[in-house]
Amino acid sequence: MHGCAPDASCPAAMLVRHRKPFWGLIFAAITVGMLLAPLPWSDRTAIHDEVVIARPAAQVFDYVSTPRHWPEWHPASLGVAGATDHPLGQGERVTETFMVAQRGGAVVWTVIESQRPRTWSIEGVADGRRVGTITYRLTPAMTPSLTPSAERTRIEREFRYRSPTLLFALINRLMLRERVQAESTVAVRRLKALLEAPAAAIALREAPIRPKLEPSLNASSEARMPFQLQSTAFAPGGEIPAEHTCEGADISPPLAWTGLPPGTASLALIVDDPDAPDPAAPKMTWVHWLLYNLPAHAEALPGDIGKAGLPAGTRDGLNDWHRAGYGGPCPPIGRHRYFFKLYALNAALPDLGMPDKAALERAMRGHILATAELIGTYQKLQR
């Protein structure tokens, strides 16, 4: 009888058995290579939104082109570093920390076109790779009589990006494009709501256009030091540890700041969440902590402020649980952003009792020298 029985003792059977995983590995390697290889064709995506804002074009232009405002209205923006305090001109750049579809990163944006108040365009690079361009186009909105209005502006926002690999193209078509479009739509709605709020109208009228200063024109390196807020508990844009949330001890995180502007007489702190109740469909901003009249010589707040005690003279405000003190993140759904905003004021505020956020903001109006901002995120643990 020629050959042998097809069992484990047969050399031919053993050869076939070992060939199967070998060819499986080859197939897997080829598949991964195809998914990660650069696309041989151009696969581009354009995300477009537009809205009419009841503000003059110059005011809208200056607001969207000032990077420190981005986290206030775009749900994917966690923070911006660099030249953030003025409308950016052509060639200026900033670094933005972002989170899209539960994935975070950092992108360097460079202004490639600036024609105030009509067009503003930025190009992004991450990890040495071009990620796309964002362009804003502003035109006077038409009145019911079909005449242009100087007080109403139609703003179009277009984000164009390309898929670098087949894997990215597949993910983009399956879920990423839909998520980016949804966040862009939320962003322009927030932008409209922010700029049309009565308090925004006053702030926009009072805010001067701050030109970029060359280093040689600044009085000193100390004067150029940015006003910054930090925490040893979490990095900018990072996740807030559970001990500072309702799922832990719910104690306040440690905070420290540097670069107070000259003339600072007191400080105020507001911590809030603009993503309530659902980041995919935010309806309100939930206030977690209010403090005012922190002394100008203070440089930090220790963790667990309820136990450590506030600096002398510091007053509490009311959070949205209608109580004084810190209330930590407790998001009902999704990952929320938490804004820690420290205001340097040129005066100590009068006794406001226990003000809510709106009352504190009214009292600070006209006294704000600078604002430092720290953003953290949190999502409840899946149980």
From TrEMBL:
<feature type="transmembrane region" description="Helical">
    <location>
        <begin position="22"/>
        <end position="41"/>
    </location>
</feature>
<dbReference type="Pfam" id="PF10604">
    <property type="entry name" value="Polyketide_cyc2"/>
</dbReference>
<dbReference type="InterPro" id="IPR008914">
    <property type="entry name" value="PEBP"/>
</dbReference>
<dbReference type="InterPro" id="IPR023393">
    <property type="entry name" value="START-like_dom_sf"/>
</dbReference>
<dbReference type="Pfam" id="PF01161">
    <property type="entry name" value="PBP"/>
</dbReference>
<dbReference type="InterPro" id="IPR005247">
    <property type="entry name" value="YbhB_YbcL/LppC-like"/>
</dbReference>
<keyword id="KW-0472">Membrane</keyword>
<keyword id="KW-1133">Transmembrane helix</keyword>
<protein>
    <submittedName>
        <fullName>Phospholipid-binding protein PBP family</fullName>
    </submittedName>
</protein>
<dbReference type="InterPro" id="IPR036610">
    <property type="entry name" value="PEBP-like_sf"/>
</dbReference>
<dbReference type="InterPro" id="IPR019587">
    <property type="entry name" value="Polyketide_cyclase/dehydratase"/>
</dbReference>
<keyword id="KW-0812">Transmembrane</keyword>
